[in-house]
Amino acid sequence: MHLSTRIIATTFLILTSPLLNSPIQARAAYYTEFSLRIEGPNTTIFENIIRTSGHIVTAASGGTHMCDGTNNGANDKPGGTITSAIDDAVLTWDGTWDKQTQEYLITSIAGYVQTENKYWGLLVGKPYKFTDKGGCQTKVTEGEEVLIAFDAFGASAFLKASADLPTVKRGDNIVVTVVNGVDEKPVKDAVVLGMNTNGEGKVTIKFERSVGVHKFKATKLGAIRSNEIIVTVTPKTKNSPGCTNE
């Protein structure tokens, strides 16, 4: 095929593209980077920094629609949204489409399907707040924290945990603090590595674990589990108190 013929053929394909002739059209990408955590009923589905832009998404129940924050006139300019982040973060999710609000009502993520009284909830910010709009209307700002949780509306708390030291010598102590992410108040009796927090939301843990990187979370019955805590354990030096030959 001659070059001129290829150009004509390509132009024809572009002009007759079903995407361009449909009401759903690609728009300029405005990327946003933020912290995303998705907590299922018994496991963490996703926890990492994600970079997303508003884009066209497809759900089995709700069909294909633009999801860039301008839905239902919620924002003037497009950007990364909660639902676009879900679409980027997991392999499978589903939701029904509400024409009036131009919004997906999320029904399942990674195979975890809502029930008659347990639904997926969307929270954003520091401290966490439930969104007042759906995931396609809610644009997320740079550096924001987003939590998506199963049975969020029935949870007694949304745990957030932190350790006073990122690195500890084997046999030394760390102090873990657990608070409720919606009001930053301490959470008593949260369980961290088998030990319970006190009234100040704190627990002291002697790290006898092997040298290396250890990851763990805080949990409590009826609450949404915490973010992941990462602690690196290093060997004791010969001059360290309590050092033994191993």
Detailed description of the structure:
The chain is 9% helix and 39% strand. The protein has 246 residues and is mainly beta. The chain has 2 domains: 23-154, Ferric Hydroxamate Uptake Protein, Chain A, domain 1 (Beta Complex); 159-234, Immunoglobulin-like (Sandwich). The strands form 6 sheets. The chain has a 5-stranded mixed sheet with strand order 2-1-10-8-9. Residues 1-23 have low confidence and may be disordered. Residues 1-21 form the signal peptide.
Judged by helices, strands and strand pairing, the structural class is mainly beta
- Taken in chain order, the helices and strands follow as HEEEEHEEEEEEEEEEEEEEE
Q: Into which percentage range does the β-strand content fall?
A: 35-45%
Q: What is the name of the CATH class of the largest domain? A: Mainly Beta
Largest sheet: 5 strands, mixed
Query: What is the count of helical runs?
Result: 2
Low-confidence runs of at least 5 consecutive residues:
1-23
Separation of the first and last Cα atoms: 74 Å
Write the CATH fold name of the largest domain: Ferric Hydroxamate Uptake Protein, Chain A, domain 1
The dominant shape is elongated
Domain module tally: 2
As an assembly, this protein is single chain
Instruction: Round the mean pLDDT to the nearest integer and report it.
Output: 88
- Specify the helix fraction band: under 10%
| Total count of strands | 19
CATH architecture of the largest domain: Beta Complex
Q: How do the strands line up in the largest sheet?
A: 2-1-10-8-9
Keywords: Signal
Signal peptide: 1-21
